[in-house]
Amino acid sequence: MDFTIHCLRYDDIVHKEDSMRYRVQAKNVEKVYMDDGKTKTEEFKILRQCLESEIEHYSDITKAKLIFMPVCVGKHYFVYCINLIHNRIDILDSIDYFWAGTSPKPHHQSIYDKLPIINAAFQKVTKDKFSQFDNWSRPFIDVPKQAGPNDRMFFLWKYMEF
Questions:
Q1: pLDDT value at 81 more than 60
Q2: Which end of the chain has fewer surrounding CB within 10 Å, N or C?
């Protein structure tokens, strides 16, 4: 995952200068989302440390328009995008729940439950300059879906790239 984010950042710096500081890819944040039984205080500390190390790459994270956070639940990766343009959290998920006959809600509930912690960490790191986003809507964005069971990382990369 770290190498993927590194490549995306490099691509922004070298080839897409206009997107620098417009979109942010957070690489270490996904560690917090694992259902590891840690207390909220421990999760907050880990997330704050991850965010502090991430924002050193950006002059002012509060000016970003899109913040991409890769998330892992079980063996599945998807992307949560804090969309400051539309004041919502876009969910980019490659599983086609309609064809699988399941609901996405159970797969995402653990992340929904941690949004207040994620929001609090952003507030702490930015000294309350970042928009409060824990109660924003969370639409599932219509994105291409994976056909094979092992395609998730490819889709994650593509979602964060565009």
A1: yes
A2: C
Q: Is residue 115 classed exposed, middle or buried when 0-12, 13-18 and 19+ CB atoms within 10 A define those classes?
A: middle
CATH topology of domain 2-161: Adenoviral Proteinase; Chain (3.40.395)
**What pLDDT is stored for residue 17 in this prediction?**
54
Tracing tokens 């969910």 back to the chain, one arrives at: 91
Confidence (pTM)? 0.72
User: What is d(CA 40, CA 26) in angstroms, rounded to the nearest whole number?
Assistant: 20
Three-state DSSP class for 63? helix
CA 31 and chain centroid, separation: 11
Identify whether the C-beta of residue 31 lies closer than 8 Å to the C-beta of residue 69. Answer: no
Q: How far apart are CA 36 and CA 32, in angstroms?
A: 8
Cα–Cα dist 133/137, whole Å: 9
Cα–Cα dist 27/4, whole Å: 9
Residue 97: is its pLDDT beyond 60?
yes
Pairing state between β 66-73 and 76-83: antiparallel
